[in-house]
Structures are given as structure tokens and as C-alpha cells.
Amino acid sequence: MAKTKKTSRPKARLPKGLRDIPAAEIRAQDAMLRTIREVYERYGFEPLDTPAFEYTEALGKFLPDQERPNAGVFSFLDDDEEWMSLRYDLTAPLARYVAENFESLPKPYRRYQTGSVWRNEKPGPGRYREFTQFDADTVGASSVAADAEMCMLAADALEALGIARGDYVIKVNNRKVLDGVLESIDVTDEGQKLTVLRAIDKFDRLGVEGVRLLLGDGRKDESGDFTKGAGLTEEQIDQILDFIESAPVATLTDKEIQDTIAGTQSSLGDDESELHALRILRYGERKAIPVLIDAGETLLALVKLFRAGGYGSDRIVIDPSVVRGLEYYTGPVFEAELTFEAKDEKGRPIRFGSVGGGGRYDGLVARFKGQEIPATGFSIGVSRLYAALNLLGKLKDAETRGPVVVSVFDKDCMADYQRMVQTLRNADIRAELFLGNPKNMGAQFKYADQRNSPCVVIQGPDEKAKGEVQIKDLVEGAKAAASIASNEEWRSERPAQFAVSEDKLVEAVREIFARHES
Amino acid sequence: MAKTKKTSRPKARLPKGLRDIPAAEIRAQDAMLRTIREVYERYGFEPLDTPAFEYTEALGKFLPDQERPNAGVFSFLDDDEEWMSLRYDLTAPLARYVAENFESLPKPYRRYQTGSVWRNEKPGPGRYREFTQFDADTVGASSVAADAEMCMLAADALEALGIARGDYVIKVNNRKVLDGVLESIDVTDEGQKLTVLRAIDKFDRLGVEGVRLLLGDGRKDESGDFTKGAGLTEEQIDQILDFIESAPVATLTDKEIQDTIAGTQSSLGDDESELHALRILRYGERKAIPVLIDAGETLLALVKLFRAGGYGSDRIVIDPSVVRGLEYYTGPVFEAELTFEAKDEKGRPIRFGSVGGGGRYDGLVARFKGQEIPATGFSIGVSRLYAALNLLGKLKDAETRGPVVVSVFDKDCMADYQRMVQTLRNADIRAELFLGNPKNMGAQFKYADQRNSPCVVIQGPDEKAKGEVQIKDLVEGAKAAASIASNEEWRSERPAQFAVSEDKLVEAVREIFARHES
Predict the structure, then answer these.
(1) N or C terminus of chain B: which is more exposed, having fewer CB within 10 Å?
(2) Do A17-163+378-400 and A404-517 fold alike per CATH?
(3) Chains A–B, number of C-beta pairs less than 8 Å apart
(4) pLDDT at A161
(5) For A415, which of B55, B120, B305 is closest by C-beta distance?
(6) pLDDT confidence of B142, banded at 50, 70, 90?
(7) What is the pLDDT of residues B224-260, one digit of tens each?
(8) Would the CB atoms of A363 and B4 count as touching at under 8 Å?
(9) Top-level class of domain B404-517
(10) A419 and B41 in contact by Cβ < 8 A?
(11) How far does A419 lie from chain B, in Å, by closest CA?
(12) What is the CATH number of domain A17-163+378-400?
């Protein structure tokens, strides 16, 4: 390594906003992905994998931050001078895939995909530049039943992951409600519309007063940064907030609402979600705004499908404050939220909020094909959901037993120890030969403890002569050490170390496992 | 979508050298990864995930192609002007991880990792710029037992994947043999050494004459491209080839070899691998080249450990032609090869060759830490192994049954169909509501066929009135269609379509599954 000394040494460090994932999280996340996959398969979805990067042109105007067209993604130039970008979601690659393979796909095409996505954004606490998403999308279905299915799928996936009914909610709205409201207050500029959309999307975080500022002149945040607002009048803002907070209740009389409910075939009684949908529908009719009528009808149809599928208002609700920040949504939008209370390590309450979302995007494939192809999808933020489940202790047990450690008493007998460790492994027992410096047994026991080993196998010259091995039970040994008082008594019944014939090694280790489990 | 029409449309296309992975391959590869993971866990390895990219500086001089220092990887500039590169293997990120977290890791540290790696290389048939590797490494163990374990691990993984003993071989050599030979023929220039290494690494593909050219003046390939050689003399070349082809047999008499075998404690009889190791050892002793003596002793110790672990010469052999192209190996090197004969679709024989490899790299962590940390590892080329297994029909069955399709007879009854499909899903039956245009039943049956559905559920007004559904068995239906002659007879026993009470839907579908399986 003479060369190494000559050059200055690089610092071993992660690029900012990235992280290494430790063993316990990998195991738990792997179990989560398998659970989600099972649910999606049950719904008839097929897996697809696309590459980590695409031509930047193919991601095109669907970049997450349109105000900085080339920002938000990691891009690099290929040697033929074409720009490529790491995918920032799994939807844009799907649009490219569908456009490229349209003829051969079943229609509608239900696909799921999981994998890393990358965002070239300022990292922050819990905010990484690489994270895992799990998406389901149905392409080629304009039916509202396709949207309904996405919400039911999300609910089923969350419950399969161990989140109890009542601890989450799927919130549904229709982007067309906003379109209709903007039309009714004469906001037609696309840029202004987008600013309004982004403002409303922050309702959860900023509350009504924060959104009011962003709809008006603008808002200064805690750090002093100023965000320019949409520049609407007070009257326009009031109209929008009226819709966000509770749908346009004020515009309908109680009698009108009652008549409306009585007049629908599928009145669901006190279902607030149905009422929301009806209010929007009636408001649209009264103001003669077709897009609002459409929006209300769609929401009403969704509620009917949810309830028919057995998904009550304890699982899926219409929530007028949900808009989703991405511009490409064209109809129903969804958001999955965890609702239970939790505390962090310091006992402070935590709100997890959104762990996934999606919606209908009928224009995304049209970019490539010209022809509009309806599509709807739902994306689970796996990394975020993992963090929530972890903090709550709701992760399914992904613990793996530590390996049995075969210790090295005499370096010249490595072949013997190797044979023992292979015998254990061949019997499907997780086992390791100690590969560190075998100078003393203490270091080997310390290593075994660090590895969470159930037991250590030892063969010195005496044991070898007798064809035996010593097995030291580390779990019982630790218990014994913890209860010195009853030590002697315990020792007579369950020795923490004992000798067995070498050909009984596998049976003896299995007995120890059984003892630990009982 | 007025906007779309105004702008010119991008072409939907994959960046060159990348590919989408279809459902069947994802399922099969997923099963493969799970199998490999089980074997690695059994050996005591712990999972780790690192990010997709690292600071370019951290990958540093371990880039795959040292002749073009900035080539071979995909790199991009962060907004703080630091270069980052997509990982081209899983070893360099491990070195960074270990250097960064050395104090908290168990020593030795056994870790496994799987994921995509990216190479900025000219793509070719079957040669992609993104592919999946599965690595196991042991860091902090200088013991030859750590190297031996890598080879046994690889053998076990291949067998667990369904490759029969005899259909693969793990080839082992020691990089120090080449070091010693180069020393004995006075080649000391680092650049020249690397050229020799690269030349020998092509032995499998080019044969002895091709390598001879690359060791001499150079070689022109089929396309006319000329590769400059190492510029060695004929005598030097002969000496090297002598080692590659069969170890220095000519330099020892039969008597010397026999004496040598008789003189070792663990003579394994006719084991060619042991003979190779012994020849190198004796040659080193005769020429007084310490590095060759060390190399021979290490190989001898490896053979003993393999055989003690129960891995005979049908699984792991010493092969003097294996050198591995990467510069960073410092000791034993390994290569996993598939050896059985196979034919492609056109009946032409195929050689799969290497599906994985690795070796000892004691210097990789030292780049960061100064202090040398011994390490050894093995990497399986998952994408390549998948391609081989697929062509051989040796993939474990990863077929998933197509979904039951609930058809849409009447658009106004969507809520009824939705309820049926959820009933099936809640009973853990893969099911879909038909979400396409329900204009005719023919299109829905065609869709069901395309989805490989076992059966279709239909409810028209007559069935609805009776509280029934029709179930059309597509598998039996297809059989019936294929044997028109016995059609009538068959129909009387196993009707391809029948009516059941709606509340017996789940049972009826399960009966159909059972019938298909019998």
C-alpha cells in the first residue's frame, strides 16, 4: 500500500442527504415490500421495473418543481450529448413505458413498481434525496371504478402492514372542484392556478391563515424567507377557503341538502362524504358550472363504490382540502394519512400525516402519443411509512437470530472448525466460523455477544481427543449472570455450558434454540 | 391537452443500454434474490444498503477502467460543486461504509448487499449499463478461512438456485502467483503489470494464442481494432503461459512431486488442485521467491479447508488461469462458472462462463483510513445468472395465477361488481373488476384471456334477479374448444360455464382452482 501513503486520503463520508440503511431496517422494509406486493397482486396488478434513469426529455415538463425547470432532478450528459436524469418518481417512467409498448399491453394495464427515486432538493431532518416508493397504476381506464380501486388498495395495504382500522384514513377529493371554483371566481392564468394549487396543498401544514397569505400577497416563514402569493382578492380567497374547509355549505339551505339526499338513490344516511359530494354537485348546478357538476357526480360515484366495496367512512372519506401539489392530476386525487397519536423519544407528540397519495392523470401518456390515455395511480412512501411504523413499534417482527459462533481454539485446527460450521449450515442453522484474530477466547465471546449469538461451539485438545465439543449457551449464560442468587440451583438444572459428542452437534444446537423459544 | 399539441412530442424510448424488466423476470429474480439471501444469512452475513451514488472521490482510483480515469461511471455535479458518481459495484461503497463506521462494527464484519450498479460503457447484446449484483464480503479477517468461506458460500448459493453439482465450478487462484512470476521474469513497471493482468483475464475468451499476442506486441480483433500489448519478450511470455496453463509442471520432476505429496500432512490423493498448489510452492522455494512460496502455501491451505468443509474437486478447484481484471485484488481470487452445455433458441451451443467472482482486497479500506484492513468478497452477477437459468429452464416456478375477472354487464351496476371483486380479494383470491370500455362481453373475454385469467364472473339482469352469478371457466373452456369431438360428452360432466348463488362465489372459484390443479 505504498501508493496509498503518497496520495492525500479522501474522507469517508456519505454525500449529503443520502444514508446507509442498517440491517434491521432492511429486513423490516423487505417484509413491508413483500406485504404490499401481496396486496397489489391480489388486486390483479403486475410488476414492472424500469431503469434508474431516463432521457431528461422523457421526464420533461413533469419535473417536480416547474419553477426551476432544470432543478429537482439529478442529470448527466451521455457521451452522445443527450441529457439523462435519475427518475424522481415512478409515474413518469411508466408513462414512457406505456407509450413505448402500448400495442402489446393488456388494456387496461394494471402495474405495480417499487424502487428508489431521487430528488435533487435541499435535504433536511428526515428528508432524504433518495427514498423508496411503491406505486400501483391503472392505465387505459377512464372509469371512476379505477380511481375507487386505488383508494381501496391503499386501505388494504395499510391494514396488511399492521395499521389498525381507525389509525389511518384515505382522503379523496377531485381536482376538478378546484378547477370549477377557479372558473367561478375568474382565475384563468395557468401560472396563477398553479400557485393556488401549491398554496392549498400546504393547508395541512400551514392551516387556514397560512394558506390565506399564500393566496393573497404572500407569506414569510419562520426562517424569514418570503414566498410570493397568488395575488387573489379577499373575496376570491374567501370563496376558495369556503370550499377547502367544508365545501360550500353556506350556499345551500338545510332543506336543499335534505331534499338532495332524499332524491339520491343511494342515500347513505349521515355519510359526511356523500354530503360533501352533493353540496359540490348542487353548487355546480346552481351556478351552472359544468366542471363542478362533473366533479360532484364523480365524487358521489366514488363514495357509492367505496361503500359498496365495504369501505366505510372510518376508512375512506371525501376531504375538500386535499389537492396534491403535482400539476399533472386531472380528476380524483387521494391521500393516505396516519391519524393515530404518537410520541417521539422525548415524549413529544408526532403527526405523521401523509404516507402516500395519488390521483388521476389523463394527460401524462399523451405527451408521447398525442392520443390521450386515461390513467390513475397511488404511490406509497415506503421510507416514510417505515419511519412511522418503526417509531410506533408496529413493525412486524423482522428479527433474525444471530449466528452460532464456532470458536477457534487452535489455529492449526481450522479445518476441523470449518467442518463443524459447514455441518451446522447444511442443517440450515445460521453459523459462523470466528474469522478474527483468535488470540484469546474472551475476544471471541465478546464478538459472539455483539453478533447476538445464541451459543458458541468450542473444541480444545481435550475435547478433540474425546471426539466432543463444548457448547456455551449465551442466552442462559446471560440469565444466570443476571440472577447470581439462584445461580447454583439453576446450574444444576440447565447448564450454560456442556459437552456433547461432535456428531450430536446439530441436535444439541437445536435443543438450545428450542429452550430459548420456550 | 391543448398544451400537448402545441409542443413537439418527445419520442418514448429507453436510454441506450438500459431495459425495462417484465413481470415474469421480476418474479423470478425476486425468488432468486430471496434464495441467495437465505444462504448468505445462514453463513452469518448481515444485510446493508448504501445509496445509489457516492462522492466520485470516494470511488476514486478504483474505477473499473483506469486507463480512462473519468470514464466508466456516470457522474454529475452537486450544487456545491462536488462530483458524485453512480456506483459501478458494491465493493467501493462498502469500503467507504466500513471506513466511516469502523468503530461500531463487529470485527470481522460480514455483510451482504444487493442492488443495481451502473457502468458507463458501450452497450452490446446482453451487455447493459444497469444490472443487479449480489455481494457478500468479510471485512477485518486476514484468515485464509475467510477466503475459503467465500467459495463455499458461492457454491451453496448456486446449488440453492437449482444448479446441480457438476453443472458449475468455483475456480480459485492467488493473485500473488502472478506477482511472483512477474518478479521472477523482472517485470516491475506497474502499468506493464496491469496490461499483463488484463491480458491474462481474457484467457477464457481469447485462448492461449490471443493472450500471447496481448502479452507481446498486441492484437487486432475481428472488428480490426488493435489493442497494444504488454511488450514482453518471447521467453517472458512462455514463463507466464506456463503458469497459466498448468502451473510450472515442467520445472518439477515426477519424483519431486511425489515426494512433495508424501511430505504433506493432508495429502488428498489425486487432487489436481492440491498438486497445483504444491507445484507453485516448490517452484517458489527452488527459485527463492517469497511471494510465490506465500502464494503456494495459501492455495494449499485453501484446498485443505475446502475439502474439510466437504467441498470436493467437483465443486471448487485451483485454476491458474484465473486472475480477475480488477487491480485491487491482493491475494486469493475466485470465479464461479457454469459448465453445462446449453443451446440457444436456434440450437447453437452457448457458453455462459462466469456468473460471479471476487477475491481478497486488503487495500481498499486503507485508502480512507491509512490503516490496512483485510477484506475478501464474492459478487454474483444476478442479471447474468438469471439469463443463464432462464435459457436453461432452470428457474424455479415463479408463475403467478392470472386474476379472476369480474365482468361489467351493465355500467349502472358497477357497485354490485365492485362488491363481488372485493369479496374475492378479501378471501385472498387474485381478482379484478374489468375497467376497460364495457361495450361488449367479447372484448372482456379477450382481456381475460390476455390476463391469463382462470375464470370470468358475469351477472346480467336475470342472474341479478335470482341472486346468482355465472362463472365461465376459461381453462376448461379452452380445453373444450380444443377437443371439439368430445365436446358434448365433456360438457355434460364439467361445464365450462355454470351459475351459482352469489353468496357461494368464493367457494365456486376455489373449486375451479382445485379442478385446474388436479
Answers:
(1) C
(2) no
(3) 274
(4) 92
(5) B305
(6) very high
(7) 888 899 899 998 898 888 877 765 554 566 666 666 5
(8) yes
(9) alpha beta
(10) no
(11) 4
(12) 3.30.930.10
